[in-house]
Each structure stands twice: as structure tokens, then as C-alpha cells.
TrEMBL record:
The keyword Oxidoreductase applies. This is FAD-dependent monooxygenase. GO terms for molecular function: monooxygenase activity. It comes from Streptomyces pimonensis. Residues 15-331 form the FAD-binding domain. Residues 384-405 are annotated as: Disordered. Keywords: Monooxygenase, Oxidoreductase. Coiled coil: none annotated. It comes from the Bacteria. Pfam families: FAD_binding_3 (PF01494).
Length: 405
């Protein structure tokens, strides 16, 4: 069988057909690069449309090179939030220190973009939507590997066979569960849960974040400069609240009970939480796996190696991982390609996952003593000149991959 290729109309030999599950960050980025290397790509996303919302995300270091090579860097520079100030507050609402965000997150000017998660997802989608088939409002039902390919059935009906399948379906990946078994084996819970949602900016904040801390609890307002602020509530919780994960009402109740006696602006935040229609709630955790592929199926982004937002590197790892996975398959079959992907990417992933301890200790101290020590460090930091970026963000130079001829 031959197929007619859009948009040039040239006749080519059959292209490898691949399926990607998940259209957030890793999925569209992988689709972009696989399409560039000659694959016929289908993306299935369970949400009915591309999902907006979520806390702003960082694209840092090596990941900036990925988006530059995709041609979307100018658009992301336009969308850059340019946060100017990060202010920490005591439990009684008084100020601890006010710093430039890079002093806390380790970002470096020009190598650190902060954008709304939806803006990044939109930019990635816009870069591929004309060349790739998207199936919204559907998901993989069954997936069976045979010698010649992967037989997939879809929830909304239909059966197709692909040469390879990729799970870009996030921290709670069902591709991972089908392939490797229960999430508990790979999810390293870091002892916190968080809720983010938007609320009206009645605080007159602009391009800044204000964070309130009490031992084991944090509340933050992040103003990107418009009418809304991103509200963030984080709390220590001994076990992951499994009952709450699929139940937004249970999530609201849990958060409201944990913060019931909190001061500062928290009561207003809890009131807004009750009505928020874009609540994103999750446990803070990392996915650590000995292998990222099995047979003709591979995982990418949070599905394979979520580092948690405490590292600030989830989005950057998803972008770099997608680039490496596709590039590793540019001239190789799935066996050698998947091995090359792991070989080329694992060290970078491990180095970035290791940033987690630092992030947790800075943002969410759990005891009064550790909180006091943290606050003293912040006061000292505010008196020092700004430092540069973290080595782990840029610890990797992207290889060049060339398209098949
Ligand atoms: C709406 C939204 C809001 C977010 N907000 C935050 C936040 O505030 N803070 C934070 O730290 N991280 C947040 N994240 C996660 C963050 O985007 C990722 O940590 C990071 O960018 C890596 O991206 P990823 O593409 O690997 O995974 P994700 O961004 O998690 O994307 C996974 C995608 O797969 C889709 N999906 C899931 N299961 C299936 C399935 N069975 N079939 C088909 N599609 C499926 C999801 O709908 C989603 O679009 C959010 C993600 C989403 C989707």
C-alpha cells in the first residue's frame, strides 16, 4: 500500500503509524518530532478539548533549546509571565522576605520561561495540529501487543493497529498501568497534597507571588498580571488520599478541613475553592521506574518520570524527553530506539528528580523549627545579590537528529 502525503502530494512508502495517549505537554511535543521524522501520528486525549488551566509552568535550560528548535520560542517569550517578586509571609501574615523569584527557584534570566500551562499546551498543539490526527474525548480501552504491532481498541469504539504506542498520559498514566501494573509500585509519595484553582484578583497583585506558611501548610496567590490570580493550597498529609483523587467534592472537603483555622487570605481562598470550576488537585510525588518501555510501547513525560512540582522541572523533562524519544527513533526500530532513549535521557532525569529535597524544604517546611530556619535563610538571601541558574536545568546538550530520507 502507498499513501499520499499531505501537504506536498508526493507518494511515499507506507509510514510507520504510531499512537500517542495524552495531549498536554509531552504528547504534542512527541507528536511534533515524530511527525518531523516521518511517522504518521495519531494523538488520543480523553478530555473533550485541549485542556487549559493549571498553575504556570517553567520551561528551563535544555528545554528552552527544545522549544527553540520547534520554532515556538518567540510565541512563548511573548507569553512569558515575567514574575517580579516572591514574598514570603509568617503565619500571622507579616512579611518574612521579598525576593526575586530566581533567587528561590534557581532560574536564570533568558534560560527560564514561565508561562501559563494552557499557553504552552496551545503553542505545542498549534505547531502540530495540521500534520497530526487528534482524537479528543476518547481513550485507549485495550492494548495488546503482537509480533507485528499493537492492537488498540478505543473507548468510543473502533479498533486499529499501530507500529508503536506512547503513553504521555501524565502522573496517573493508564498506559503505564496496562503495561507495568499498579501505580503504587512507581509512585514515590512526597508527603504533601495540593490544590490549584483560579480566583478573582481582588488583592491588586501584579506579576508577583505571595506565599503564606505555617508548619505543614502553605497558601499562595500567584498574579500573572490580569484579573485573575492562581490560588494554591499545599498541605502535609501522611498518606496519599486515594479516596479523594477521583472525587472533586472530597478534594474540596479535605482542603477546607485542613485549612479551617488558617489566617491571612485563606478563608477567602476556601470560599473561592467551593465555586472553582478549574480545580486541579493531586498528591506531590515522583514516578521512578527501572524501564520506560515494554515491547512496542514507551512512556514519556510525567507518565515515565514525573519529578513533582517541587523541582519545577516536570514540564522541562516532558519536553526534553519527547525530543529524545522521537530523535532516538529517527533512524532506529523500536528495540534499539527505546534503548537509545533511555540511555540518552536517564541521567538528566535522575539529576532533576534529585532536586526535590531542596524544593520541599524551601517551600513547605513541616515543623516550626524547620520553618524558622527556612525563614532565616530567606532573610539572609534577600540581603545577597542574585545567583545564576541551577546546573541540573542545563546539564544536557541536545543532540541533533536528522529526519529519515
Ligand atoms: C489541566 C492540567 C492542569 C495541571 N496543573 C498543574 C499544576 O497546577 N501544577 C502541577 O505541578 N502540574 C500540573 N499539571 C501537570 C503538568 O502539566 C505536568 O506535570 C507536566 O507539564 C508534564 O506534562 P505531561 O504531558 O507529561 O503530563 P500532563 O500534563 O499531566 O498531561 C497528561 C495528559 O494526558 C491526558 N490523559 C490522562 N489519561 C488519559 C487517558 N487514559 N487517555 C487519554 N488521555 C489521557 C490528560 O487529560 C492530559 O491532557 C497539570 C496538568 C493538566 C492536564
Amino acid at each position: 500500500m502507498t499513501r499520499t502525503d499531505r501537504p506536498t502530494g508526493t507518494r511515499t512508502t507506507p509510514r510507520c503509524e504510531v499512537l500517542i495517549s495524552g495531549a498536554s505537554i509531552a504528547g504534542p511535543a512527541l507528536a511534533f518530532w515524530l511527525n518531523r521524522y516521518g511517522y504518521a501520528v495519531t494523538v488520543v486525549e480523553k478530555a473533550p478539548t485541549l485542556r487549559g488551566g493549571g498553575y504556570p509552568v517553567d520551561v528551563r535550560g535544555t528545554a528552552v533549546d527544545v522549544v527553540a528548535r520547534m520554532g515556538i520560542l518567540p510565541r512563548l517569550r511573548d507569553a512569558h509571565i515575567d514574575l517580579r517578586r516572591l514574598t514570603f509571609l509568617e503565619g500571622d501574615g507579616s512579611e518574612v522576605a521579598s525576593l526575586h523569584p530566581h533567587d528561590v527557584t534557581g532560574g536564570a534570566a533568558g534560560r527560564d520561561l514561565e508561562v501559563r500551562r494552557g499557553d504552552l499546551s496551545d503553542a505545542l498543539y498549534a505547531a502540530v495540529r495540521d500534520d497530526v490526527e487528534f482524537m479528543f474525548g476518547d481513550s485507549v480501552d485495550t492494548l495488546e501487543q503482537s509480533g507485528h504491532g499493537v492492537d488498540v481498541t478505543f473507548r468510543r469504539g473502533g479498533r486499529r493497529t499501530f507500529d508503536m504506542v506512547f503513553g504521555a498520559d501524565g502522573l496517573h498514566s493508564s498506559t503505564r498501568e496496562t503495561l507495568f501494573g499498579l501505580e503504587e509500585q512507581f509512585h514515590h509519595y512526597l508527603g504533601h497534597c495540593f490544590a490549584v484553582f483560579t480566583m478573582s484578583n481582588t488583592f491588586k497583585l501584579s506579576h508577583e507571588t505571595v506565599m503564606w506558611n505555617a508548619p505543614g501548610r502553605a497558601a499562595a496567590l500567584y498574579a500573572v498580571g490580569d484579573d485573575e490570580v492562581h490560588a494554591f493550597l499545599n498541605f502535609a498529609h501522611p498518606e496519599p488520599p486515594f479516596d479523594a483523587f477521583r472525587d472533586p467534592e472530597a478534594q474540596r472537603e479535605l482542603v477546607a478541613s485542613v485549612f479551617a483555622d488558617a489566617g491571612w487570605e485563606v478563608p477567602g481562598m476556601l470560599a473561592a475553592l467551593r465555586d472553582a470550576d478549574d480545580l486541579f488537585f493531586d498528591a506531590v510525588g515522583q514516578i521512578r521506574m527501572p524501564r520506560w518501555s515494554s515491547g512496542r510501547v514507551a512512556l514519556v513525560g510525567d507518565a515515565a518520570y514525573a519529578p513533582s512540582f517541587l523541582t519545577g522541572q516536570g514540564t522541562s523533562l516532558a519536553l526534553v524527553g519527547a525530543y529524545m524519544l522521537a530523535g532516538s527513533l529517527a533512524h532506529r526500530d523500536h528495540v534499539t530506539g527505546f534503548a537509545a532513549y533511555e540511555h540518552g535521557t536517564r541521567e538528566f532525569v535522575t539529576m532533576n528528580q534529585a532536586l526535590v529535597g531542596k524544593g520541599g524544604a524551601t517551600l513547605f517546611p513541616t515543623t516550626p523549627q524547620v520553618l524558622e530556619e527556612r525563614n532565616n535563610r530567606l532573610r539572609e538571601l534577600s540581603a545577597l545579590p542574585s545567583a545564576g541558574g541551577r546546573p541540573a536545568d542545563s546539564a544536557f546538550t541536545l543532540p541533533e537528529f536528522t529526519p529519515r530520507t
